[in-house]
Write a structure and sequence with these properties.
- By secondary structure, the protein is of the alpha/beta class.
- It has a single domain, classed as Spore Coat Polysaccharide Biosynthesis Protein SpsA, Chain A, CATH 3.90.550.
- Helices cover 31% and strands 26% of the residues.
- It has ten helices and 13 strands.
- Helix 8 crosses helix 9.
- It is globular and about 60 Å long.
- The termini are far apart.
- The relative contact order is 0.18.
Length: 279
C-alpha cells in the first residue's frame, strides 16, 4: 500500500440533483448557496484546510458552472474593481491560488463507485480523499472532518470512512457498517451493507460523504459488479478491503447536514448564518 501523503480530493458532482427540482433544472445542486457560498466551495475549503491542494471534479456535461466558479471572470472583476464588493471574491480567489483544479467527465451515471473509479487518471497510485458536497460538514471547535480523517490515515495507513449514528428508520438511505471499536469513536469494520432494510442493517452506523481511500480501491471498483439499483457501489468495493481488516470507520467530531434534502439544506443555511455571519 502506498504511504504517500494525500494531496488529491475527488468531488463526484455529475448527478442531476433531482430532489431539488425545479431549482436544479439549470443550476447544479453543488452551486446552490448556503448563505452566500455554494456548497462546492465549502467542500473545497474543507479539503484545503486538510492540506489537500489537488481538486478533481467528476463532472457531467450539464455542470460547467462548477468549473467556472473556480476560474477568472474578468468582466465581473472589472465591474466591481475598487468597490467593497471586490472583497466578496477573496475566499474563492484564495482557493484558486492555492489549488490545482481538474475535471473528468463521467460518461454515464453508474453509481458512486463508478464515479470514484473515473478519478484514477488524476490520482494514480496514491491515497486520496473523496468529498460528497451534498454532505456539508462543519466543526466549530476544531479541525474539519477531512483534516481529522487525514490524521487518522497517517496512523492506520488504510481506507477511512466517516460514519455517524442515524435513526433506524433511515438506514435504507445509507451504506451501513458494523465493526469492532478499537478506540473511542474508531471502528475496524468487518461488515458493510448498501441501503439495507431495517432488518438487514448490521447497525445504525451510516457512512456519510467523506472518504479516504487507498489506491488499490480502483482495482476493486473495476472488479465490482453492479449492486443496488444496478449501480456500482463504493460500499461493495470497500467491503473487499474490510474483509482484510483494511477499513476504519470514524465517528467524526462536528455536525453534518444532508443538503441533498430540503430540510437538511434549510438547517445548514440557518446554522451557517448563525455561526459565521450573524455578527
Amino acid at each position: 500500500m502506498s504511504q504517500n501523503r494525500i494531496s488529491t480530493c475527488v468531488f463526484p458532482v455529475a448527478g442531476f440533483g433531482s430532489r431539488f427540482l425545479p431549482a436544479t433544472k439549470a443550476v447544479p445542486k453543488e452551486m446552490l448557496p448556503v448563505v452566500d457560498k455554494p456548497l462546492i466551495q465549502y467542500g473545497v475549503e474543507e479539503a484545503v484546510a486538510a492540506g489537500l491542494t489537488q481538486c478533481c471534479f467528476i463532472n457531467g456535461r450539464h455542470k460547467q458552472a462548477i468549473e467556472n466558479h473556480f476560474d477568472r471572470n474578468v468582466e465581473l472583476e472589472s465591474s466591481i474593481q475598487g468597490s467593497s464588493k471586490e472583497l466578496l471574491l477573496d475566499g474563492v480567489n484564495q482557493l484558486m491560488e492555492t489549488c490545482a483544479f481538474s475535471s473528468i467527465r463521467q460518461l454515464q451515471a453508474n453509481g458512486l463507485g463508478h464515479a470514484i473509479g473515473c478519478s484514477e487518471p488524476a490520482v494514480g497510485d496514491n491515497p486520496f480523499a473523496v468529498i460528497l458536497p451534498d454532505d456539508l460538514c462543519v466543526n466549530s471547535h476544531g479541525p474539519g472532518v477531512l483534516a481529522q480523517m487525514v490524521e487518522l490515515y497517517e496512523k492506520f495507513q488504510c481506507s477511512i470512512v466517516a460514519i455517524e449514528e442515524v435513526p433506524s428508520n433511515q438506514v435504507s438511505k445509507y451504506g451501513v457498517v458494523d465493526g469492532d471499536e478499537i478506540e473511542e469513536g474508531i471502528f475496524r469494520l468487518h461488515n458493510m451493507v448498501e441501503k439495507p432494510t431495517v432488518d438487514e442493517a448490521p447497525s445504525n452506523l451510516a457512512i456519510i460523504g467523506r472518504y479516504i481511500l487507498s489506491p488499490d480501491i480502483y482495482q476493486l471498483i473495476g472488479d465490482t459488479k453492479p449492486g443496488k439499483s444496478g449501480e456500482v457501489q463504493i460500499t461493495d468495493a470497500l467491503m473487499e478491503q474490510a474483509r482484510e481488516g483494511r477499513v476504519i470507520g470514524y465517528q467524526f467530531k462536528g455536525k453534518r447536514f444532508d443538503c441533498g434534502s430540503v430540510r437538511g439544506y434549510v438547517a445548514a443555511t440557518n446554522y451557517c448564518f448563525e455561526q459565521f455571519y450573524e455578527d
